[in-house]
Amino acid sequence: MLIVMHHHATDEQIQAVKNTVEAMGLRAEPIPGSMRTAIGVLDNQGYVEDSTIRELPGVREVIHVSKPYKLVSRDFHPQATIVDVGGVRIGDGEAAVVIGGPCSIETEEQMHAAARQVKAAGGQILRGGAFKPRTGPHSFQGLGVAGLKILRDAGQAAGLPVVTEVMRIEQLDVICEHADMLQIGARNMQNFDLLKEVGKLDHPVLLKRGMSATIEEFLAAAEYILAEGNNRVVLCERGIRTFEKATRNTLDLSVVPLIRTMSHLPIIVDPSHATGKRPLVPVMARAALVAGAHGLMVEMHPEPEKALCDGAQSLDPEGFGKLMKDLGRIEKFLAELDN
Amino acid sequence: MLIVMHHHATDEQIQAVKNTVEAMGLRAEPIPGSMRTAIGVLDNQGYVEDSTIRELPGVREVIHVSKPYKLVSRDFHPQATIVDVGGVRIGDGEAAVVIGGPCSIETEEQMHAAARQVKAAGGQILRGGAFKPRTGPHSFQGLGVAGLKILRDAGQAAGLPVVTEVMRIEQLDVICEHADMLQIGARNMQNFDLLKEVGKLDHPVLLKRGMSATIEEFLAAAEYILAEGNNRVVLCERGIRTFEKATRNTLDLSVVPLIRTMSHLPIIVDPSHATGKRPLVPVMARAALVAGAHGLMVEMHPEPEKALCDGAQSLDPEGFGKLMKDLGRIEKFLAELDN
Amino acid sequence: MLIVMHHHATDEQIQAVKNTVEAMGLRAEPIPGSMRTAIGVLDNQGYVEDSTIRELPGVREVIHVSKPYKLVSRDFHPQATIVDVGGVRIGDGEAAVVIGGPCSIETEEQMHAAARQVKAAGGQILRGGAFKPRTGPHSFQGLGVAGLKILRDAGQAAGLPVVTEVMRIEQLDVICEHADMLQIGARNMQNFDLLKEVGKLDHPVLLKRGMSATIEEFLAAAEYILAEGNNRVVLCERGIRTFEKATRNTLDLSVVPLIRTMSHLPIIVDPSHATGKRPLVPVMARAALVAGAHGLMVEMHPEPEKALCDGAQSLDPEGFGKLMKDLGRIEKFLAELDN
Amino acid sequence: MLIVMHHHATDEQIQAVKNTVEAMGLRAEPIPGSMRTAIGVLDNQGYVEDSTIRELPGVREVIHVSKPYKLVSRDFHPQATIVDVGGVRIGDGEAAVVIGGPCSIETEEQMHAAARQVKAAGGQILRGGAFKPRTGPHSFQGLGVAGLKILRDAGQAAGLPVVTEVMRIEQLDVICEHADMLQIGARNMQNFDLLKEVGKLDHPVLLKRGMSATIEEFLAAAEYILAEGNNRVVLCERGIRTFEKATRNTLDLSVVPLIRTMSHLPIIVDPSHATGKRPLVPVMARAALVAGAHGLMVEMHPEPEKALCDGAQSLDPEGFGKLMKDLGRIEKFLAELDN
Fold it and tell me: Fewer Cβ within 10 Å of end Cβ, chain A: N or C?
C-alpha cells in the first residue's frame, strides 16, 4: 500500500501517519519526493483496510497494491485448475467444452429434444433453468423442482451432465441431487452467503460475472468459494453493462486472455446473453474460442420461436449443429497454429 | 409494444407477424409508413414477452411501451405511500428522515455512543450492519447475531428504531426480531428470492438501488416486494457505477425527482456510499434534500479513525450534528420556498 | 510514480528497472515488501511517460501519483480565480451567475424576446448557438454568422454579455468579434487544437465536460488553455454518459464540491443538457446551487414548443422567472446557513 | 416515430398532439390500447425533431424508429463499399488489411525501420502520428509537418501507402499532400466541422469510434462525411470506455458483425488502443479477424521500450511478424471454414 501525502503536508502529519501504520503492526517507509512525500506500507499479508489511514490530516490518496483475493490468483498458485463435471474436463490443455440448451426448462418433450440435439451435435453439458431470475415478478419464473427432474432425466437419457442455476440457499440440496454443476448467475455474483454455501459443497460451480463487476470483484467473488474449500470453479464472461444498447450487453472478450494470466481457474464465454441477438452468437462464439476460452455456454432451443424466455438469442438445432462443427474445426486449427 | 419491420419486409412477413401477435391473444395494428411499416400491439395487460416476435423474418426491432412493474407505479396508484418505521413516518408531506449510524456494529460501547449521538443530533433511525457484504472473504464480515442484539439494545436505550441489512433468507426471523426495518443492499437488489421473502413479511424494507440498475429495474425489484403483499418499501439511491473513479460511485441525484413522479414509494439518498469521501457527504446530503429526497442515510461513527469499515466516508459526531442542524434549516427554508 | 513488481520478480529485474528509471534522470527507491517489491520513482517534475517502464520484465503495474495538469490545480495555485465576462464576475465569493437563453439562435424576434426575458428575470449572461453540433448531418445546423449578429444585437439591446459555442478554429475571429465568452462544447473537450487556440486569446472560455471525460481529463483539457496563457476558464458540468437512459445524461453533481477543492477555476452546472427533461431542470438547478456551483447554464426559449432544438429541456419564460426567484432566495439562505 | 400518451391523457390532449404532428406536414395515426393510447407518426422522410411534441400535455414518451443516418445504411445501400488506399483494397471479399507502425513518428531511422519491418512481415499500410492528441499539454505532441515528410519518405521507400491522424482543418492540405489516408481519431469523432471538410475531399478516411459513442452515433458521424460526397470511409472499433479499468478500454468486438449488417462501409479493429497491453494484442487481433473485421490497425515499434508514446501496447518487429503469419493462416482457414 502506498500513502500519498498532500503537497503541503507537514512533518508532523507525516509522522502521525507513520505512527498509525506502525500501530497496525505494519512497517511504514517514507519516500520524500520533489513535490510531495509518499509513504510505503510494508509487511502486510494481504489487503489492508485503509479507512483509518485515509482520513488522517495531510493524506491525499491511498493506493492499494494487494488485491482482495489470493487463492484464485495464478501468482500464488501457478498450476492450472481442471474442473471435472461428470467426467467432462474443463481447463488448460483440455478440449473446449460446450454447454448447450434452453434458457428455461419448459416441458419434458422440449428438454429431451434439446438434450438429444446437444448430444448429437457434440455438446458436452446440458443447461436448462428451473429457477429463473426475471427483472419483474410478472414474467415466467421457471418450473422449479419439477423442472429439475425433467432436466436430470433428459441429461441421463442423452448421457450428458447437467448444469442449472441456483438462486437461494434452501435450493442447494435439491439442486445438488439433480444437477452435476451449480450455476451462480450474474445477479447473484455478489450474493456472498450463497457463494459461501456453495463453497462448502463438493459440486463444481459455474460463476457468471456480474453485470458491472470488475475483474477484481469477479475474482474476489470466486475467492469466497475457494476460501470455503471448494476450488471446482469455472468462471464465465457473459457481457457487461455499458452505455451501448445495440447489443443486450457488451461482450468483454479481452477478459479471457487477461484472466488466463491472472487466475488458474478456467474461463468460458456465454455469447448468447452477451449479445442478445441470435445472428451474433455463432460469430462471437468463434471469436471467444480464438481468444482462448476454455469453453462456451450457448443457448439452444428445439423451437426458439416458441421459447418462453430468451428465444431471440437462442440458436435452433440446425444453427447449433453448424456452430459445433465450426468450433471443432477451429479448435483443431488453433492447435496447429500454436504448434 | 411496437414492432418495426425492415425497409424491405414483404407483405407476407408483415402478415406473419400480425398472425403471431393475434395468436398470443393480442391485437395487431399495422401502421404503414413511407420508408417502413410498424405494427402496433394492443390489448396487452402488461409487459409482453417479445422473443417469439423478435425472431420473425422481416422484424427489425421491438419497442416496449409497457413496463415490467405496475404496483409501484404512480400511474396506477397516484396516492403517495407513507412508510411507518417504529413510529417514524417516511414519505410525501412528512419531515425528511435521517438514518444515521456506523457501517458496522463493532462493540457495545461504539453502538451505544452512536445511538446517543444520532438521537442527540436529531436523527430518527439508527443504522448498523451485523452482516456485511464485503468484496473479498478476507475482510471483516460483521458480528452477526451478537451484533443484532447490540443494535437493538442501543436503539432501545436511545429511543430509536433500527435498520440493518439482511443478506440471506434464513436470517429474516432473527433480524425481524431485533430490527424495525430490513435493508436490502445494492448487491442484493436483484436477489429475487430474498425480495419475495421480505415481500411476505410485514416489516418495512429499505431497498437500495443496484450498482448498475436502471430506474426501470430498480422499480421492478420493488415490484417483487409489493407483489407479495408488502408495500412498506422505501427506495434508496446510493450512487451508480460509471467510468468516473474520483468518487466511489456517481450519485445520480436526478433520480429523486424522477422517481417521485414515477412511483408513489418514498425515496431517500445515501451520500456516504455514493461519494465515499467524508468532505463530500454534508454538501451532497444538502443537495439531496433540495432535490426532493424524503430522507437520508448517513454514516456516522463515534471515532471514524478507528472504524473497521468505511471510516473514510463516515462523519464524526460533530460533523453529524452540524449536518443535522443544517438539514433542519434547509427543510424549513424549502417549506417556505414552495409556499 | 510507483512501480509494482511481480511476486516472483528477480533481483536482476528489479535492478534493471532501477537502472531504467535512473537513465531517465529520476531517482528510484526500492521498497521491499513481504510479498513483492515496489519501486518508488522520485524527483519527477510532473507526469512521467511510463511506457518504457511498464514493459520491462517483472513489472506488474505502474501507478501514477502525479497528474497530467498543474496550472489548474489548487494544490499549486491556492487562490480562487474569478472570471470576468463583460463585467459579470464568476467564482468564489461572487453571486451565482445564471446564463440563460435558447439552444439555437433562430430569429431576431426569438433572440430579442429571450434576451429581454433573461434580463427581466435577473439572468446575467445570454446564451444562443449559431453553430450547432448535431449527431447527424440532416438536422438543423444553426444560422452561422448571421446568427452571431442577432445574438450580439439582442445582448446589447438587453444589456447582457453573450456566450456562444465555437466549433472550428476559423470561426474564432468572427465569434470573438460578436461574443463576450467562447463556449467549448462537450464533443470538443478534447479537440486539443481548438483548446490551444482559445488559450492564445484573451476571451473568457466556458469549457464543458466531455460526455465520458474523467475529472482528471476535464482538468487536463483546461490545462491546455491555461498553458497557452489564458486563465479565464469556467468549467461546466453537463452530465456524463452512463448506462441509465431515463435521463439524457447522468448529472454528476458531486463533481462540484470535488472540483472546488481540486482546482481554483470556477465551476457551473447545466441541468438542461444533464437531464434533458424540463420538469427536472428547476429542481436540479436548485440542487446544483446547494452543491456549491458558481453558476448555472439554463436553456430558456420564448416558446419552447416551437424550438428548433432541445425544446423538451427548455424552460419557458415563466418557468425561468420562477427559477430565478427561487435561486435568489436559495443563495441568500445559503449565505446565512454558512455564517 | 411513436408518441406514447399517459394513462390518464384526455381526448383533447390526444387531439392536440395529432394537430401538432399534422402541422409539421406529417400524418398522425392514433392507436388506442387497453391501458393508454399511442400515436404513430407517418410520412416522415427521416429523423423527426421531437422537441415540439415531447412537451405537449399528456405525452409520456416519444420513441424514434428512424435513424439519424441513411447514406451509410445497408438498408438503403445494400452493396458493400470497397475503399482503395493507394492500391490496397479494404472491404467485403478482400483480404484483411493490416495497418502497422508506431504511435508517433519520432525519427527517420525509426520510421524507415518500421516501414521495412511492416512491409517485410506482410503489412499493407504504414501508420505513424505526426500530430498527437494527448490528454495533457505537457506530453510529447508529435513532430508535426517534419514528421509527415518522414512518414511519406518511409512509406515510399518501403512501397507502402501511409495513414496519419488529422486534428485540425488547416492541416488537411499538407496532410493530403503527404498521406494516402486521413485518420479521424476517437476524440474527434464528433468534431463535425472536421468531418464535413474531409467529406469534401477525395482522400480515403479512417474514422475511429469515439470513446463513448453508440453505434448509432458512430454511423451518424460517418454520415457527415458521406453527405459531403466522400464515401471512401473505413470505420474502426478501438474500444469503448466502461467501468472496467483492467484494460485501457473495453474492446467491443460484437460491433463488427453488427456493423457489417447495418452498414456497407468496411470495419476494422485496433486491438492496441482497445487493450493497452501488449500481451493481449495478438490474441485480440486474431479474435477480431474471426469476428469478421476487414482489417486491423496494430501498433508496432522497432524498439517499443524506447517509444515516446504507447510503448506498452506496441508489438516489437518479431511479435508483429509472428502475428502477421498467424493472421494469414487464420484468413486462409476462415475461407475454408465458410466454404
Answer: C
